[in-house]
């Protein structure tokens, strides 16, 4: 692939042709702010926060969608750029609720970070603000479109990665917002509640319902683990506060990246549930009693042997689980056919 | 043979069923496939019926069926004419024909009698009897129905009326002259000859070269060289390529493309066919806004007719060239006039622009190389192919060759559709063709290019109207909207109007356009209400700068232009609103003050009696006064006063 040499902030840099200014700048440690860019979805160029000044160009191109050209001389923080960036942030803040104090996203909000970085306060351009009811008529996701900055990441991730297209832009101009078809709410839409939109939302417009009010980003530790639900093995980051799992985020790497299914992302209520089974139970004299693993296994082995001897292996049925890996299922199959001598073998995923 | 399109006799072998390259010429100049004086005469008679040459024994009464004339009552005129003609037994020598718009809408309904060329204006149903009896039977022109200018001069002939005399109707040549729903009409006036020429005598590269040499620039607003666009689409790699006709004309007050589509739809199809042949495309789309139902109807008819006779489809006229056209109706979004948004809309997605590059000629509709041309651009193609580059370039300027159609509206005496060679001075259009400012008022400004354009003033009246001159002055030729404003126009209000339009039509994708135009509009509203201060003016200017420099597409980048140009040329008017809380033009209702001139007031009490809020006080026969705090500015006092004592300002 051919290479292109450009100058960013007086620093020469050579990158492969087709690289965007944003990526080229990041390669040399220059962080250009952006709210709508996401490497996993298509190029968008909507928030315009990443505009830069290119010598000889009249307007300020968006770094996230402009590919480098030979000899480009780029300034990422010139006076014109700063005026544009600050104005854009002021415009976003002018149409944004003033509730960072209670917002779930505080501390992990890109808009907050950039307002801090560029010293922008809310105040200029005060006027009408969008005023939508907060949507929470589903068990998992709270949509507060008053906080939405219309970066469109949720729309793109839903259509390009998840393949559902449950949401899209609706209306025009100042009334533009993200909505489901006919505003019917997420449950009536094609949404599968995978929560990938939560993962990419840069502000507090999309939040997890279960974790609301339970902790701030800086109060939580992140514990990486593997999802217990199926054999795929998605990586999770448990959000833990005071030894309790408050929420789940995708591992961010490995096979699932930032994506999970509804169970992996939202189905963690069992962890601290009082009814959760933690030890084997054995019914003794008609009553379930906690026993040790060795006692439980020994009893099971004994009963299986008895049944096989008395009625033959065919009297035993085995049900395998989708939660375990292929290898484990293979072993269970061997165990059933060879050891228990039964072909009565089934799997929960078939039910 | 009942019409031009049919075979004249059984010897005729040139039929749509056996496509051959001579087919069209056989119909219009033939027959070519066999020798027959009779057949030839028959064909000529059909053509004469459409064109009415000066020696024609028959007469044709053209009734304008454009939107303007129809709404001012032209719909019944055809029936009434036919009744009267039958009553006077003139049925054999006079035919009545309904055409599309003549562009002189202010003077409709229009009747145009051929071959003599008498032009009647403002014709009412009660005038029909007179026209038939006096004009057709007694050969006397009905003078009272002729066009009269403000000086009182009458003009019997179409071509002498200053509105038409100043024009060069090259693209509009057929509008108002032929029946737009008849393919035979278009063929009779030379239609599809350019396609025949291209298919028979030229290679695709030669066509592109010809278009490049002609210097034709896109009429949609940007003025991009059409030939260069075609060349890059031809060069682009791709198995499938598309031609799109952008008929999503959305600028407020602009109706050039609508008139072309309604009046001469086949010329646009012919342009698309030639583009398809040149670029190597087999599929075209016309994206027409649904608010143009008549244009859509006529396009559907034209496409169907062309398909029926093998002008669209496979193996067009035996040349092996294949091309078809589909019509896609837009759903009313202004932004869909932007090329990439338009393509998204055809694909079934929300009409939102994407960042360029890649250009549409490389990756356009469904990521295939696509040529997107405006209606008027495409209508230029048959003309320039037929006349040749040299003749074509004689019109217009070196850098902006050809003609341009403008929708002249606002405070001019003769609003309407005008076509002029590029490079004519603004003054000629506004004062020559347009007849100056209505009601003897003075000229203040002209807004060119709709919401993306700017306002120009008295000092610019000598500027030649072409792509480059206007841009330097802060306006743009745009798609051809030309709104003329008189002395009683408030320029802040004009800027507010355009911003309200762009704000409502912004697609919402990029922040500066979505949020910035909203705040610009709010500031302009505050200025109009007298609630703004000088800091607002600074904020407005900063927003203009940022929205212009950082918006994603042309809509956002150009939408500050009406504000910037009015700020540049009418800054004192902004300051009057902000500092003095006064609207010099007396338009902004919040800033209007009513007062009573004591020297003129007779104390009759009529205003006092009619004031709905009791804001007027005064003793009988003594000068009255208006209490400003109570006044709701309804203007009743002004209307009631018989002595001109109530002042508004």
Instruction: Name the helicity range of chain A.
Output: 10-25%
Largest interface: A-B, 39 and 35 residues
Mean pLDDT of chain B: 92
What's the architecture of the largest domain in chain A in CATH terms?
Roll
Stretches with pLDDT under 50, minimum 5 residues of chain B: none
Question: How large a portion of the residues of chain A is in β-strands, by DSSP E?
Answer: 15-25%
Task: State the CATH topology of the largest domain in chain A.
Answer: Ubiquitin-like (UB roll)
| Structural shape of chain B | globular
Report strand % of chain B: 5-15%
Can you tell me the CATH superfamily of the largest domain in chain B? NADH-ubiquinone oxidoreductase 51kDa subunit
Unreliable runs of chain A? none
Q: Using DSSP, what is the number of strands of chain A?
A: 16
Secondary-structure-based class of chain B equals: alpha/beta
CATH-level-2 architecture of the largest domain in chain B: 3-Layer(aba) Sandwich
The structural domain count of chain A equals 4
Strand tally of chain B, please? 19
Strand order of the largest sheet of chain B: 12-11-15-13-14
Verbal overview:
The complex is a heterodimer of chains A (351) and B (649). With 351 residues, chain A is α+β, with helices and mostly antiparallel strands. Chain A has 4 domains: 3-124, Ubiquitin-like (UB roll) (Roll), CATH 3.10.20.740; 130-209, Alpha-Beta Plaits, CATH 3.30.70.20; 211-276, ADC-like domains (N-terminal domain of TfIIb, Single Sheet); 283-350, no CATH class. Chain A is 24% helix and 20% strand. Chain A has helices at residues 21-27, 79-94, 110-117, 153-162, 196-200, 262-266, 293-311, 326-339, and strands spanning 3-8, 11-16, 53-54, 73-75, 122-125, 141-143, 167-170, 177-180, 206-208, 221-226, 235-241, 244-250, 281-284, 287-290, 318-320, 345-347. In chain A, the strands form 6 sheets. Chain A has a 4-stranded mixed β-sheet with strand order 2-1-4-3, with helices on one face. A 3-stranded antiparallel β-sheet of chain A has the order 10-11-12. Chain A has a two-stranded antiparallel sheet with strand order 6-9. In chain A, a hairpin with a 2-residue loop joins β11 and β12. The longest helix of chain A is centred in the C-terminal third of the chain and has 19 residues, at 293-311. Chain A is elongated and about 90 Å long. The two termini of chain A are 51 Å apart. Chain B has 649 residues and is α/β, with parallel strands linked by helices. In chain B, strands 12-11-15-13-14 form a 5-stranded mixed β-sheet, with helices on both faces. A 4-stranded mixed β-sheet of chain B has the order 2-1-3-4, with helices on one face. Helices cover 38% and strands 14% of the residues of chain B. Classes of the chains: A alpha+beta (351), B alpha/beta (649).
């Amino acid at each position: 692939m051919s290479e292109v040499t450009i100058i960013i902030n007086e620093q020469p840099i050579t990158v492969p042709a087709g690289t965007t200014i944003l990526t080229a700048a990041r390669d040399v440690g220059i962080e250009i702010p952006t709210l709508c860019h996401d490497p996993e979805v298509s190029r968008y160029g909507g928030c315009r926060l990443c505009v830069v000044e290119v010598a000889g160009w009249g307007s300020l191109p968006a770094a996230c969608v402009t590919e480098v050209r030979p000899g480009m001389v780029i300034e990422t923080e010139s006076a014109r750029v700063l005026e544009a960036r600050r104005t854009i942030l002021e415009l976003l803040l002018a149409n944004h609720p003033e509730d960072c104090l209670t917002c779930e996203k505080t501390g992990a909000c890109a808009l907050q970070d950039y307002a801090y970085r560029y010293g922008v306060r809310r105040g200029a351009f005060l006027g009408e603000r969008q005023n939508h009811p907060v949507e929470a008529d589903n068990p998992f996701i709270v949509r507060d479109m008053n906080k939405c900055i219309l970066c469109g990441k949720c729309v793109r991730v839903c259509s390009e990665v998840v393949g559902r297209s449950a949401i899209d832009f609706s209306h025009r101009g100042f009334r533009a917002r993200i909505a489901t078809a006919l505003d019917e709410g997420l449950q009536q839409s094609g949404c599968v509640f995978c929560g990938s939109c939560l993962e990419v939302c840069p502000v507090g417009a999309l939040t997890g319902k279960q974790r609301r009010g339970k902790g701030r980003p800086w109060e939580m530790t992140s514990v990486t683990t593997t999802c217990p639900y199926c054999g795929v093995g998605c990586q999770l980051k448990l959000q833990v506060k005071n030894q309790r799992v408050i929420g789940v985020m995708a591992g961010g790497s490995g096979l699932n990246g930032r994506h999970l299914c509804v169970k992996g992302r939202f189905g963690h209520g069992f962890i601290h549930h009082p009814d959760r089974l933690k030890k084997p139970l054995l019914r003794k004299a008609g009553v379930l009693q906690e026993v040790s693993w060795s006692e439980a296994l020994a009893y099971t082995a004994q009963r299986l042997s008895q049944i096989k001897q008395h009625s033959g292996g065919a009297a035993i049925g085995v049900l395998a689980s989708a939660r375990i890996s292929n290898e484990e299922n293979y072993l269970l199959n061997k165990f059933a056919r060879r050891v228990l001598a039964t072909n009565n073998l089934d799997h929960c995923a078939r039910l | 043979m009942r019409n031009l399109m049919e075979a004249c006799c059984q010897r005729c072998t040139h039929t749509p069923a056996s496509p051959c390259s001579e087919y069209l010429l056989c119909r219009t100049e033939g027959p070519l496939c066999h020798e027959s004086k009779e057949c030839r005469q028959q064909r000529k008679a059909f053509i004469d019926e459409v064109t009415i040459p000066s020696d024609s024994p028959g007469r044709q009464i053209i009734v304008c069926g454009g939107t303007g004339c129809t709404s001012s009552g032209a719909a019944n005129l055809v029936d009434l004419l036919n009744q009267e003609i039958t009553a006077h037994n003139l049925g054999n020598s006079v035919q009545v024909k309904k055409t599309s718009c003549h562009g002189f809408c202010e003077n409709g309904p229009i009747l145009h009698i051929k071959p003599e060329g008498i032009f009647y204006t403002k014709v009412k149903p009660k005038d029909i009897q007179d026209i038939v009896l006096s004009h057709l039977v007694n050969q006397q022109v009905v003078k009272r129905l002729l066009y009269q200018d403000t000086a009182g001069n009458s003009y019997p002939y179409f071509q002498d009326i200053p509105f038409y005399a100043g024009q060069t109707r090259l693209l509009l040549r057929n509008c108002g002259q032929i029946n737009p729903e008849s393919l035979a009409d278009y063929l009779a006036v030379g239609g599809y000859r350019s396609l025949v020429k291209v298919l028979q005598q030229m290679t695709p590269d030669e066509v592109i070269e010809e278009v490049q040499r002609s210097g034709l620039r896109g009429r949609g607003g940007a003025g991009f060289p059409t030939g260069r666009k075609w060349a890059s689409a031809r060069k682009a790699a791709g198995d499938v390529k598309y031609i799109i006709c952008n008929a999503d004309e959305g600028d407020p007050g602009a109706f050039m493309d609508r008139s072309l589509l309604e009046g001469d739809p086949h010329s646009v199809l012919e342009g698309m066919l030639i583009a398809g042949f040149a670029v190597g495309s087999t599929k075209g789309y016309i994206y027409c806004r649904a608010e143009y139902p008549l244009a859509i109807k006529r396009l559907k008819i034209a496409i169907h007719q062309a398909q029926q006779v093998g002008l669209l489809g496979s193996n067009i006229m035996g040349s092996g060239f294949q091309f078809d056209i589909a019509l896609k109706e837009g759903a009313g979004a202004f932004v869909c006039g932007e090329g990439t948004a338009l393509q998204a809309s055809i694909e079934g997605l929300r009409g939102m622009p994407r960042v360029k590059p890649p250009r549409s000629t490389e990756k356009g509709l469904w990521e295939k190389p696509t040529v997107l041309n405006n209606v008027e651009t495409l209508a230029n193609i048959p003309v320039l192919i037929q006349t040749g580059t040299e003749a074509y370039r004689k019109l217009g300027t070196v850098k902006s060759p050809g003609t341009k159609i403008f929708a002249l509206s606002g405070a001019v005496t003769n609003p309407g559709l005008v076509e002029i060679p590029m490079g004519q001075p603004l003054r000629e259009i506004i004062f020559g063709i347009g007849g100056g400012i209505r009601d003897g008022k003075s000229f203040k400004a002209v807004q060119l290019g709709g919401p993306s354009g700017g306002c120009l003033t008295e000092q610019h009246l000598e500027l030649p109207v072409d792509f480059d001159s206007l841009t330097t002055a802060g306006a743009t030729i745009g798609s051809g909207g030309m709104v003329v404003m008189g002395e009683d126009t408030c320029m802040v209000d004009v800027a507010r109007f355009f911003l309200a339009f762009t704000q409502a039509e912004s697609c919402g994708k990029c922040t500066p356009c979505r949020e910035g135009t909203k705040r610009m509009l709010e500031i302009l509203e505050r200025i109009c209400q007298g609630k703004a201060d000088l800091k607002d003016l600074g904020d407005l200017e900063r927003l203009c700068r940022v929205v212009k420099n950082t918006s994603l597409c042309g809509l956002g980048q150009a939408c500050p232009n009406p504000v910037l140009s009015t700020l540049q040329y009418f800054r004192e008017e902004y300051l009057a609103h902000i500092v003095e809380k006064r609207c010099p033009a007396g338009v902004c209702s919040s800033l209007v003050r009513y007062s009573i001139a004591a020297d003129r007031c007779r104390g009759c009490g009529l205003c006092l009696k009619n004031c709905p809020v009791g804001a007027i006080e005064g003793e009988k026969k003594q000068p009255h006064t208006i209490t400003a705090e109570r006044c709701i500015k309804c203007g009743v006092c002004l209307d009631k006063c018989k002595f001109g004592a109530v002042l508004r300002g």
